[in-house]
Design brief:
Blueprint (H helix, E strand, L loop, with lengths): L67 H13 L17 E6 L10 E8 L4 E8 L4 E9 L7 H13 L6 H10 L10 E6 L17 E7 L5 E2 L4 E4 L4 E4 L2
Antiparallel strand pairs: 1-2, 2-3, 3-4, 5-6, 6-7, 6-8, 8-9
């Protein structure tokens, strides 16, 4: 598989999540938005030009948390493996699977050094769980599944917020609430704090039947005044870049 040369643009493969201003927002809805995964698993600090390591870094002990260097190396190996189709795209439609998170496998043994890298292919709406042997520099197990929806990456969250703000012809409740609360129109995501969770259809809403087979996000948004804005009337379908009305 051919991947973009080195630069980390994969859902913030080496980025600081843009959600630090918001502590914890419980994204509860009839459709079941998930709580955010511990953000430490997908947060990395940009170093140098932000490129992923091409050489194996110094490895920690088998059960220790991944270092930023190990995580970056594991992501590069996982994305470039032949088990991921060359047609795979990220949330922006660019030629590379979306990086969701990297972690030490739960069933790790006492020998070797492995990393679990979770990717999402927006072309096929498929999740990949790639187990990377860091010492060997290769994927030793690849599992894929459709309709499996892991927690959202920082890049997916940012994309969902942008789609909600740029929705053409849509009057979403939260934008009206923001203007009433703050006295100015909501024009940029920088005016609010926000998080997002995966949303799947459970039969209790009018819309969103595609969510689960396709990747959908529900936003939690807080205005500068501290007001939490109502976002229960819609979700963002990241797979087809649309606004899905729930009621």
């Amino acid at each position: 598989m051919t991947t973009a040369p080195g630069r980390t643009r994969v859902a913030g493969a080496v980025v600081v999540a843009a959600l630090s201003a918001l502590a914890v927002v419980a994204l509860s809805s009839s459709g079941g938005a998930e709580e955010d995964r511990d953000q430490s698993r997908s947060r990395f600090v940009v170093s140098g030009d932000g490129s992923l390591p091409t050489e194996r870094p110094k490895l920690r002990e088998p059960r220790e948390p991944l270092s930023p260097e190990e995580s970056g190396y594991a992501i590069r190996v996982a994305q470039g493996d032949d088990s991921v189709p060359a047609s795979a795209t990220d949330v922006r439609g660019e030629s590379m699977p979306e990086f969701l998170y990297a972690d030490v496998p739960t069933d790790v043994d006492s020998s070797g050094r492995k990393a679990l890298v979770v990717l999402y292919d927006y072309t096929a709406d498929t999740t990949y769980h790639q187990t990377v042997d860091l010492r060997a520099g290769k994927v030793v197990e690849s599992l894929s599944a459709a309709s499996l929806q892991p927690p959202l990456s920082a890049g997916e969250t940012e994309t969902a917020m942008r789609h909600a703000l740029e929705a053409e012809g849509e009057t979403l409740r939260f934008t009206r609430e923001f203007e009433r609360s703050e006295g100015v129109p909501l024009l940029s995501e920088e005016q609010v704090s926000y998080v997002a969770g995966v949303w799947t259809y459970d039969g209790t809403t009018d819309g969103g039947r595609e969510c689960g087979a396709e990747r959908c996000a529900q936003l939690g948004i807080r205005a500068p005044s501290g007001t939490y804005l109502d976002t229960t009337d819609f979700v963002v379908n990241l797979s087809d870049r649309s606004i899905v009305r729930l009621h």
